[in-house]
User: Fold 3-keto-5-aminohexanoate cleavage enzyme from Kroppenstedtia guangzhouensis.
Amino acid sequence: MISETVRGLARKHLQLFREWISLKKEGAPPPTANPWVFGAIISMKTMEKLIITAALVGAEVTREDTPHLPVTPEEIGEAAAQAWEAGAAIAHIHVRDETGKPSQSRDLYEAAIREIRKRCPIIVQVSTGGAVGMSPEERLQPVSLGPEMATLTTGTVNFGSEVFMNPLAEIQFFAEEMMRYGVRPEFEIFDTGMIGTALGLVRDGWVTGHLHFDFVMGVPGGMPATARHLLLLIDQLPKGATWTVAGIGRHQLPMAALGITLGGHVRVGLEDNIYYRKGELATNAQLVARVKRIAGELERDVATPEEARQLLGLGEK
Ligand SMILES: [Zn+2]
Assistant:
């Protein structure tokens, strides 16, 4: 039995949505980060355009795992261009040294970004996660290049047998540096408590401007990739925030489908998953193209980099 309180809430949400749809042509943000709460059913055509992020490299996958992994700055530039042609608006990048090991070298990031810029207008988002065990100063290097976006992980989490350390003082330092260089953070959420820490940064003035979250689901040690967990996360976001979902390994495709239908955005790519289907290796572009195709069938339009810049408030202070 549905209670009167729930009925009241459902009516309120439906009313908010009716108002929003009438305001939408003026560019009003949605009244909640989850357009489907309490069954406020609208066509996916009315949702904001889908931003596809291609996580091209990562820190853990190796050339031995897949020959499709881009490693050199030129290869990263080429992979970004192919992902952009396939429908990606954001390239989330890490870099590797000449031996293929993960690096946070400013020079290598500069070279990779130059190779991307030569080829396409995709938004570049650098990693500040780096690889487990790197120092905060080492991880922060690419931020001083002033890229449009950078990741900001707002908590410590187990990565299998390793620990990805992010004490609060370091998170605040990362946020401060991003604001200083005009870099839009993407909050990397590996577990539910990290949303509260991210919102604390906003409350205490460490981060200003548009809020964008990435839910990374299915890391061993982090939160599981389930629809139930995703809904719990979305419902904690403040009005006007945007979110992306990244499922790890075999969770990538189902979480992408949920991201499209729930009004969020989607991250795919070899950092999170190297397979197109069981036993068949993928390229970054193939993974992006599949998300674009599914979105098309569901009547959700895909954002260009320029449209994604608008949606994410890039360039705003
Ligand atoms: Zn990454």
Notes: The pocket of zinc ion is lined by residues 55, 58, 92, 94, 127, 129, 271 (CB under 6 Å). The chain has one domain: 52-311. The chain is about 35% helix and 15% strand.
